């Protein structure tokens, strides 16, 4: 129960305290639940001397991902007031998410990487808790030991699969894929944004895996927008689909979802908290993140995506136009075909004419007030997105960028 002292502190912080004093304590504690959208007076980052910045880079984990939508923040605060059974909550939230997205089943994980680990674990163990307790040690257990992926699909996050103790078998062609499949093959792992890099595309992989009865997982971590993708890959026939919660969905950065066939989601849950003797025990999501993830999906489905797009595009155009013509500088607005599908301003230049490296330009943007983060870097290029900007911040990004580039150009 809320302490009397704290209650009085909270009440005295309210503008209209008169009427509240007559409520009983429990009622009052509900009434004065803080509105998560109103920041408290304390600025924790300032107190600690932690730099905050304008994010013109994108949804990077190192930059804390995205900012949660207001509705999501409110859901987070509201749910912190009660106790619930975590498995019951996961069951019901999973059903709600699955019905919203039109797939068989879903579960909230602690990010796309955890969805990959838990999904892989489930394929290995089925719903047998004794097997789950053995991971990542597979030898002598009778569990399968190999996961296949294309060499061209290699990404660091494949480590999330190896956490389960399996070995990754790399292939390039469809023929190699067929030959690689054997009695130890547990699963096939596909990285959506690398579809066009590999020689075997979505349907090729699905066809072979269906033929040999191999479960398929697709990593779609950064693949919203577009909103349709939330249903596209389960509809296409992938058994498991992994999304980040804290990128385009603007849910909690420490959450994600695993969508797919009920049989695999049920099996993945065996390795998920609260069960302690599992590989997933450190991948905890509590009620706040679970509900906030659900609300983020609801809220994302309701958004006016065309309006979002128009805003991002106008912001990116504003930045491009503010820089104007600089000899030796090329400014192009592109939209990636897969992953981070948002208007992206790509700047590249001849360093004889614009005398600054990409890395140095990033550093100059970072060192200014306010600090600004942009993406890319290296010798002579940077890239900028506007989807993580608050409206109006594009003006600050534009004038700072333009100032530096003009200073450095001959
Ligand atoms: C971001 C990302 C991940 C990891 O997602 P988290 O939600 O941060 O765990 C995995 N795969 C790809 C392709 C990603 O872009």
TrEMBL record:
Record-linked SUPFAM superfamilies: PLP-dependent transferases
Keyword Ribosomal protein: no
Pfam families with a match to the protein in the record: SelA (PF03841)
An example molecular function term from Gene Ontology annotations: L-seryl-tRNA(Sec) selenium transferase activity
Annotated positions of the N6-(pyridoxal phosphate)lysine modification: 247
Keywords: Pyridoxal phosphate
Cofactor(s) the protein needs: pyridoxal 5'-phosphate
Record InterPro entries: PyrdxlP-dep_Trfase, PyrdxlP-dep_Trfase_major, SelA-like
Membership in a protein family: Belongs to the SelA family.
Protein name per Swiss-Prot or TrEMBL: Selenocysteine synthase
Source species taxonomy: Bacteria, Pseudomonadati, Bacteroidota, Flavobacteriia, Flavobacteriales
């Amino acid at each position: 129960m809320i302490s009397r002292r704290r209650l009085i502190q909270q009440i005295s912080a309210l503008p209209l305290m008169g009427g509240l004093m007559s409520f009983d304590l429990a009622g009052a504690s509900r009434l004065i639940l803080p509105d998560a959208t109103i920041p408290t007076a304390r600025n924790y980052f300032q107190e600690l001397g932690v730099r905050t910045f304008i994010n013109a880079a994108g949804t990077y984990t190192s930059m804390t991902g995205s900012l949660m939508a207001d509705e999501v923040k409110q859901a987070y605060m509201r749910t912190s007031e009660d106790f619930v059974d975590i498995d019951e909550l996961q069951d019901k939230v999973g059903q709600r998410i699955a019905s919203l997205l039109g797939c068989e089943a879903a579960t909230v994980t602690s990010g796309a990487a955890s969805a990959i680990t838990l999904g892989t674990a489930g394929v290995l163990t089925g719903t047998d808790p004794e097997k789950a307790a053995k991971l990542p040690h597979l030898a002598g257990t009778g569990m399968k030991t190999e996961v296949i992926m294309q060499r061209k699909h290699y990404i660091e996050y494949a480590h999330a699969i190896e956490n389960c103790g399996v070995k990754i078998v790399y292939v390039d062609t469809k023929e190699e894929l067929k030959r690689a499949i054997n009695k130890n093959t547990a699963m096939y792992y596909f990285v959506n944004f690398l579809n066009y890099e590999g020689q075997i595309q979505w349907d090729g992989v699905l066809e072979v895996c269906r033929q040999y009865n191999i479960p398929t997982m697709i990593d779609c971590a950064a693949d919203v927008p577009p909103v349709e993708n939330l249903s596209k890959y389960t509809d296409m026939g992938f058994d498991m689909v992994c999304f980040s919660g804290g990128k385009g969905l603007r849910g909690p950065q420490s959450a994600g979802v695993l969508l797919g066939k009920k049989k695999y989601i049920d099996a993945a849950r065996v390795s998920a908290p609260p069960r302690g003797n599992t590989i997933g025990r450190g991948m905890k999501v509590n009620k706040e993140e679970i509900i906030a993830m659900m609300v983020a999906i609801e809220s994302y489905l309701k958004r006016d995506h065309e309006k979002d797009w128009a805003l991002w595009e106008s912001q990116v155009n504003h930045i491009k136009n503010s820089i104007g013509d600089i000899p030796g500088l090329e400014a192009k607005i592109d939209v990636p075909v897969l992953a981070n599908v948002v208007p992206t301003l790509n700047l590249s230049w001849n360093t004889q004419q614009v005398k600054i490296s990409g890395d140095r330009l990033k550093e100059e943007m970072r060192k200014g007030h306010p600090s600004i983060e942009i993406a890319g870097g290296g010798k002579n290029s940077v890239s900028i997105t506007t989807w993580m900007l608050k409206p109006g911040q594009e003006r600050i990004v534009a004038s700072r960028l333009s100032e530096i580039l003009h200073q450095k150009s001959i």
